[in-house]
Design goal:
The chain is α/β, with parallel strands linked by helices and 588 residues long. It has three domains: 86 residues, Nucleotidyltransferase, domain 5 (2-Layer Sandwich), CATH 3.30.420; 144 residues, 3-Layer(aba) Sandwich (Rossmann fold), CATH 3.40.50.2300; 248 residues, no CATH class.
């Protein structure tokens, strides 16, 4: 028998993530009284045809996990064995996240476009939703256009977010709006009716409820605009999260049967990932904050966390599988090919990319395909960060040329990283695409379990903390990135490393080069950096040196003296030689 870990009443836990193409299952168990990652497995997701049953892929992954862990999880009827038995079979708990469900379609209905509707649009920029339509109930449009309402009736949204009026303001316009909404959607079949989320003048709650009369599922939350000068969207966004869970995730084919296995309600992968990013930012006590990057088959998700909060942007349709076409159309084929260190004709590249798009769950079998999909990852990241900059509030985060602010930590996840042949390729993809400045740690979600850990935190915070601390992240290394440009070959930065074992390394790194200094993941050291007088090492001013305590990783310390912004050689032959050289230098 295992020693029961404190905090949840469960010794062993299965963490499941149902993705667009793959379903991942990880086993977490107690070892000497602490929660540890044991093993993981994956199977093709089965939410679509012909199976149309998400539970089938979970079962497939569990059978694979049973072979790896040496213990059965399913009984003879293919049902989960729960709780864990004395012979070691089964498991005590299971948590689920999913990114397979489509986004929540939100119709915003409000009184004034420049106040409540604008606030509602910010509220509806929930990472698992999309704004389906906006209708404004003002003097010129009172009663709304009949044809417009007919179109909404024929293709109803998932949610109507009803806003308008400050608290203690007029209630009649809201009651009139509710009457039209009830008349428009109230006669629909139950499974087509939208949820009505009331986030308006709180004095209108009861009159609106009486007007709706049970014809729609009415949810009431705090006013998103309680006063002219105040916004309050947190409660409405939390309710959108709950609606997404019930309306989208739980309606995935076969999910109703999977619910019986779950300990807590399923979470959207993106929502759960945000939770674990907040946790990591608090755990590491970062000075400058962190960036998290998740590249999937169909979407790319970026998050920036700091003491000021979390900024999050989900770029749907942009990924390394089903979202590959969008990346190619937005960047252009030649922008993709500039990252490929192998001579490749445009026609050949188009054919290979088309095959990848048709088989989004396949793993690259040739060097050419591998280099192409890694180029797609670079461009997907660049596109997403560019879009995120336009969506996020202007807080002086980015420089005029679009460079990132100094970051202490970059966390990456996704199949394109997890299946890379070696961590040097992972690091190079991230460095090329994000172009960090200053001194930044790089870590990888190597077992594809960060979202599940975010969901697990709702059931067992202790398990989340211990598995994150010991097992979830691979330390790739620390990258040093000067900003600016000098003449090729000039000394860009002088480096002095004092390791904790008293050994020392001194190095002069020329501009345009990448150099690595070995420093194991279990080692620390004092790193002294003295940049060229025209280069900034993340201090906000050129020529200023810095001395920092750092930790190592599988790649040690990476000195990236190629300059910021990063510029690739224009000459094709020179570009290929440089890309090949950089890749060789990044091999551990």
């Amino acid at each position: 028998m295992t020693v029961q870990a404190e905090g949840s009443g469960a010794d062993s836990i299965l963490a499941v993530d149902i993705g667009t193409d793959w379903t991942h299952v990880a086993l977490i168990d107690t070892v000497e009284g602490e929660y540890r990652y044991v093993a993981s497995a994956e199977a093709r997701s089965t939410w679509g045809q012909p199976e149309a049953d998400v539970k089938a892929s979970v079962r497939s992954a569990l059978r694979e996990l049973s072979a790896l862990a040496g213990r059965p999880f399913l009984d003879n009827q293919e049902e989960l064995i729960k709780p864990e038995q004395r012979n070691g079979s089964g498991v005590d708990a299971l948590v689920v996240t999913s990114s397979a469900a489509p986004p929540l379609r939100v119709l915003i209905a409000g009184l004034t476009r420049d106040l409540s509707v604008t606030t509602a649009m910010r509220c509806a920029e929930f990472i698992c939703s999309t704004i389906y339509d906006v209708i404004v109930w003002d003097e010129s449009s009172r009663g709304w256009d009949t044809d417009h309402l007919q179109r909404l009736y024929e293709e109803p949204p998932d949610v109507v977010l009803m806003v308008g009026g400050v608290d203690m303001g007029p209630i009649t316009p809201l009651v009139e709006m509710a009457r039209v909404l009830a008349a428009t959607f109230g006669s629909l079949e139950e499974d087509r009716k939208p949820v009505l989320l009331f986030a308006a003048n709180q004095d209108a709650r009861r009159p609106v409820e009486a007007t709706i009369g049970g014809r729609l599922d009415l949810r009431v939350v705090d006013n998103v605009r309680p006063t002219l000068d105040t916004e309050s969207i947190s409660e409405a966004r939390l309710e959108l999260e709950k609606i997404y869970q019930s309306v989208k995730i739980e309606r995935l084919p076969g999910f109703e049967r999977l619910k019986d296995w779950c300990e807590v309600p399923a979470l959207a992968t993106a929502v759960s990932l945000e939770a674990i990013v907040r946790f990591l930012n608090r755990q590491y006590k970062l000075q400058h904050g962190m960036l998290a990057l998740d590249i999937g088959s169909y979407s790319t998700h970026v998050m920036m966390a700091s003491d000021d909060g979390l900024l999050s942007f989900l770029n749907r349709g942009t990924g390394c599988g089903r979202g590959l076409r969008q990346v190619m159309d937005s960047s252009g084929l030649y922008s993709l090919l500039r990252w490929v260190p192998i001579a490749m004709r445009p026609g050949e590249a188009r054919t290979r990319l088309a095959n990848m798009e048709m088989r989004p769950a396949s793993i690259s079998q040739t060097t050419q395909d591998l280099m192409l999909v890694q180029a797609v990852a670079r461009e997907a990241t660049r596109q997403t960060l560019k879009k995120a900059r336009s969506q996020w509030p202007s807080m002086g985060l980015f420089s005029e040329d679009g460079l990132m602010p100094p970051l202490d930590l970059i966390v990456v996840r996704g199949g394109v990283f997890a299946y890379a042949p070696h961590p040097g390729q992972v690091s190079l993809m991230v460095i090329d695409a994000v172009q960090p400045i200053g001194v930044t740690r790089l870590v990888l979600d190597w077992a594809s379990m960060l979202p599940q850990l975010g969901a697990l935190a709702r059931f067992s915070p202790l398990a989340t903390a211990q598995v994150t601390q010991y097992d979830a992240l691979m330390e790739l290394g620390t990258v040093v990135s000067p900003v600016g440009r000098v003449r090729e070959g000039q000394v860009a930065v002088k480096v002095n490393l004092q390791r904790d074992d008293s050994t020392q390394v001194e190095l002069k790194v020329p501009f345009g080069a990448i150099r690595r200094i070995p420093l194991r993941a279990d080692q620390t050291g004092i790193l002294e950096l003295r940049p060229h007088r025209k280069l900034d090492i993340g201090m906000g001013k050129a020529g200023i040196g810095v001395k920092v305590k750092i930790r190592g990783g599988v790649l040690g310390i990476i000195i990236d003296a190629r300059g910021r912004p990063l510029e690739l050689p224009i000459d094709n032959r020179e570009r290929l030689l440089r890309l090949q050289q950089w890749m060789r230098l990044m091999q551990p």
